[in-house]
Write a structure and sequence with these properties.
Layout lengths: L2 E4 L5 H12 L3 E6 L7 H5 L4 E5 L5 H15 L4 E4 L4 E3 L7 H29 L2 E6 L12 H21 L4 E8 L11 E3 L29 H13 L6 E4 L1 H20 L1 H5 L6
Parallel strand pairs: 1-2, 1-4, 2-3, 4-6, 5-8, 6-7, 7-9
Length: about 280
């Protein structure tokens, strides 16, 4: 029976994934900053669910959570780095403390979780690491530069990681959801307190007070959870897993635009080599 350790389970995708894992009869270490928000899981699944407080920016709590999972279930077979939040600001509006906290949660917290579970996975020569990114890790919209930067960073470290650990029997999956009906655009979305009027028609259009997407997103978290499990269990697990029809379209359009630009500037690019 596999053991999943999932961060950020109080709402949204993390909660849906924890529920799906437990419904399958598997073990789940269900974590959230506020452990009270996930206590319903061990109440329903007392033998297979372990609810823990976990702030991924707290290295002590990270280590304690992994040790508790190992003590209770013998090890972590699947780590899902789902904890994180959004941040809206024009690049010039971004506040240093907010941006540092964003990177600590969305990127460095995930890295700390990875480093904590890898010794056990390497010893067993098996496991899977699922890093929940976003289509914002493929392209950046006005107002989401800093959030995209955290997801581009997560994508980069995930790509290197998979090449390092695949020979050891460990999978790495980068999940890239589009818009899902979660709390991401609600409570989980933060924004800069600095407002510069010159950005009203670009980054300003995506401020929380102007965002009408919350509660209307096309993606279903329960279906996303099923898709993630399918990918983890597959004999041909993808490295990048897009989730949602909007994700497929947006990333497909972005890749096509990149190919067209590459071709348009190919001669200039090639002209920079030393003459043969």
């Amino acid at each position: 029976m596999p053991t999943w350790l999932i961060t950020g389970c109080s709402t949204g995708l993390g909660r849906a994934l924890a529920r799906t894992v437990l419904e399958r009869g598997w073990n789940a270490v269900v974590t959230a900053r506020n452990a009270a928000s996930v206590q319903d899981f061990p109440a329903l699944y007392p033998r297979t669910a372990l609810a823990l407080p976990l702030d991924v920016s707290d290295t002590t709590q990270v280590g304690e959570a992994v040790r508790a999972a190992e003590d209770r279930f013998g090890g972590v077979d699947v780590l899902v780095n789902n904890a994180g939040h959004g941040y809206r600001a024009a690049v010039e509006e971004g506040e240093e403390e907010d941006v540092a906290e964003l990177f600590t949660t969305n990127f460095f917290g995930a890295v700390e979780m990875i480093k904590s579970v890898l010794p056990g996975m390497r010893k067993r020569r098996s496991g899977a690491i699922v890093n929940v990114s976003s289509i914002a890790g493929r392209l950046a919209l006005p107002g989401s530069g800093y959030y995209s930067a955290t997801k581009f960073a997560l994508g980069g470290v995930s790509d290197a990681l998979r090449k390092e650990v695949e020979p050891l029997g460990i999978k790495v999956i980068l999940v890239e959801p589009g818009a899902f009906r979660t709390d991401f655009a609600g409570r989980s979305l933060q924004q800069s307190r600095v407002v510069i009027a010159d950005y009203d028609d670009t980054a300003g259009l995506r401020r929380k007070q102007n965002d009408t997407s919350h509660g209307r997103q096309p993606g279903d978290p329960a279906r996303a959870a099923q898709a993630i499990i399918t990918a983890v269990d597959s004999a041909d697990t993808p490295f990048r897993l897009l989730l949602g029809s909007d994700a497929v379209k947006v990333v497909g359009d972005e890749l096509q635009a990149q190919i067209e630009e590459l071709q348009a500037w190919k001669e200039t690019s090639l002209s920079t080599d030393f003459p043969e």
